[in-house]
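User: Second chain of the day. Same drill as before.
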Amino acid sequence: MARHLMGRRDEHAAAQYADPGLVRGYAAAYESGRATRYFQSRLHLVDEALRPASGALLDVGCGPGMLVRHLLDTRPAGFRITACDRSAAMIEAVAERAGADDVELAVARIEDMPFPDGAFDVVVAMGVLEYARARDGVRELARVLRPGGLAVVTMLNPLSPYRLVEWCLYWPFLRLLGKVERLAGVPPGKRHTVPKSGIRALPAARLRRMLRGAGLEPADPVYFDVTPFVPPLDKVFRRWRREWRGHLDRTVSRGPGRWLGTGYLVTARRSGRAPAGGTASATARRV
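Assistant: Same format as last time:
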């Protein structure tokens, strides 16, 4: 039963970004849409975590390459970048976004990456473990990270008011409304719907235990996209309050308000020798 549920979750996750049109929509959401504040707040915090780092960097679960392009624009000499994603459509988008810049590309799952042990000084896993077998993914992160190297990991915060309302009330309501609209004869394109996402987010304490178990030394989490508003009120709020774009530092918290963050970031250092056991079954290429 557990294996069947994992398979279904994996199918939902894979289906989201196999279509180039969905990939373009994901990239556009960084600039405009309900998730824009989340994406911009996350990128701001990841950028902050990477300031003291340099060297060979792996962006695993890279999506359409928003972080890759940001680093190429802001720190062109800081990193030798490798971008990896399970979706070939995402990797094609990275190739377009990177242009003539020298970036290594790989189509692979985070649980089974085609890189040698200790290959990277920095590994970024931004919004990918929610869609993967998290424990296996964390072990692979540790394997490809050199001793003393830096891991930067983000995760949706399943304990935030926003996520609790979104997942337990708002999305189920929209799915129920869509069923009622179907029975009422509303055309498919006009019905409310929320596709199955395959998301399985972990609380910060559990993720940090996983990181320790893989030989990483995690720091305290930092929370981002801090907001007291829950769906659908957040949509109304963000229409008339846009000052956050100029003050992204105000969207993150290490203090008392952190529990309002819809996501969180953990940095961790690789200790000792990286565990062996990785494989190289995926495809890789250079642009």
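Confidence is low (pLDDT under 50) at residues 274-287.

User: Great, on to the next one.
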